[in-house]
Amino acid sequence: MLPHSHSHSHLSLEILFFSISSLLQSYLMATRFKLQFSISLAFTFFCFFFFTTFSFTENEELGNLLRFKASIDDPKGSLSGWSNTSSSHHCNWTGITCTRAPSLYVSSINLKSLNLSGDISDSICNLPYLTHLDLSQNLFNQPIPLHLSRCLTLETLNLSSNLIWGTIPDQISEFSSLKVLDFSSNHVEGKIPEDLGLLFNLQVLNLGSNLLTGTVPPAIGKLSELIVLDLSENSYLVSDIPSFIGKLDKLEQLLLHKSGFHGEIPTSFVGLTSLKTLDLCLNNLSGEITRSIGPSLKNLVSLDVSQNKLSGSFPSGICSGKRLINLSLHSNFFEGSLPNSIGECLSLERFQVQNNGFSGEFPVVLWKLPKIKIIRADNNRLTGQVPDSVSLATALEQVEIDNNSFSGDIPHGLGLIKSLYKFSASENGFAGELPPNFCDSPVLSIVNISHNRLLGKIPEVKNCKKLVSLSLAGNAFTGAIPPSLADLHVLTYLDLSDNSLTGLIPQDLQNLKLALFNVSFNQLSGEVPHSLVSGLPASFLQGNPGLCGPGLPNSCSSNLSSVHKTSGKALMLALICLALAIVTFLVVSYRYSRKKVQFKSSWNSEFYYPLRLTEHELMKVVNESCPSGSEVYVLSLSSGELIAVKKLVNPRNISSKALKAQVRTIAKIRHKNITQILGFCFTDELIFLIYEFTQNGSLHDMLSKSGDQLQWSIRLKIALGVAQALAYISKDYVPHLLHRNLKSTNILLDKDFEPKLTDFALDYIVGETSFQSLVHANSNSCYTAPENNYSKKATEEMDVYSFGVVLLELVTGQSAEKVEEGSSEESLDIVKQVRRKINLTTGASQVLDQKILSNSCQPDILKTLDIALDCTAVAAEKRPSLVQIIKLLEGISSSVSASAEKLPVSA
Ligand SMILES: *[C@@H]1O[C@H](CO)[C@@H](O)[C@H](O)[C@H]1NC(C)=O
Ligand SMILES: *[C@@H]1O[C@H](CO)[C@@H](O)[C@H](O)[C@H]1NC(C)=O
Ligand SMILES: *[C@@H]1O[C@H](CO)[C@@H](O)[C@H](O)[C@H]1NC(C)=O
Ligand SMILES: *[C@@H]1O[C@H](CO)[C@@H](O)[C@H](O)[C@H]1NC(C)=O
Ligand SMILES: *[C@@H]1O[C@H](CO)[C@@H](O)[C@H](O)[C@H]1NC(C)=O
Ligand SMILES: *[C@@H]1O[C@H](CO)[C@@H](O)[C@H](O)[C@H]1NC(C)=O
Ligand SMILES: *[C@@H]1O[C@H](CO)[C@@H](O)[C@H](O)[C@H]1NC(C)=O
Ligand SMILES: *[C@@H]1O[C@H](CO)[C@@H](O)[C@H](O)[C@H]1NC(C)=O
Question: Chief location of this protein (predicted)?
Answer without folding.
Answer: membrane
